[in-house]
Amino acid sequence: MLNNTFKDSIYREKLTGEYFHGLPVGLVAAQRATVASTLYVMPFWVEEGFSIDRIAINVKAASAGHIARVGVYKDNGSLYPGELVVDGGTISVNAIAVVAATVAVTLPQGWCWTAVVSDGIPQLLLTYPTFSPLGIESTGLSPGTGEYSGYSKAAVGTAALADPCVSGAALAKIYNYIVAVRKA
């Protein structure tokens, strides 16, 4: 039975076989190209650990002959991705489609970070967060457009995801690529 509180209905009760992604959002129907070899990591709250069997992205404009690598990191305790939970491997971004990596892992309770990096420039479905634990940029204080949505780090390539996550990534704002996990 689903609970009626915001926290429980959004973050605790998850239906088997359904996909979930990071921060609460205000707009979903946007897309933006990735920058080749740039790692993007976005926060994802896990109220109670649960098993996942897929990590998916929605390719809105293909990048023929290219791949993306997806994964999940555990938080390092300072709102930054740390230990690698799972590297989902590579998936093709050759066509406009929802594409997924098959995994078998249990996510830990707390902040986790979904990750995506591509060797091409596919356009992926993204969201604009309405809340972020990383805060709002100080120059605009503009909810809906100024929230920091995660981190990005250029020139990391698409080989196996680093464990722990690369250091020195920069705060990213305005967009949050949807890298969704599916409950097993």
Can you put this structure into words, describing what you see?
Strands 1, 2, 4, 7, 9, 12 and 13 form a 7-stranded antiparallel β-sheet that branches. Strands 6-5-8-3-10-11 form a 6-stranded antiparallel β-sheet, with no helix packed on it. It has one domain: Jelly Rolls (Sandwich). Helices cover 4% and strands 52% of the residues. It has one helix spanning 6-12, and strands at residues 19-20, 25-33, 39-46, 50-61, 67-75, 81-92, 97-107, 110-118, 123-129, 148-153, 170-173, 176-177, 180-183. It starts with 5 loop residues before the first helix and ends with a strand.
Mean pLDDT: 86
How many helices? The count is 1
The H/E string reads: HEEEEEEEEEEEEE
Radius of gyration: 15 Å
Question: Major beta sheet, specifics?
Answer: 7 strands, antiparallel
Number of separate structural domains: 1
What gap, in angstroms, lies between the N and C termini?
Answer: 18 Å
Helix content: under 10%
In what range is the share of β-strand residues? over 45%
Number of strands: 13
* CATH topology type: Jelly Rolls
CATH first level? Mainly Beta
**CATH architecture descriptor name:** Sandwich
Morphology call? globular
Helices and strands: which structural class? mainly beta
Uncertain residue ranges: 1-9
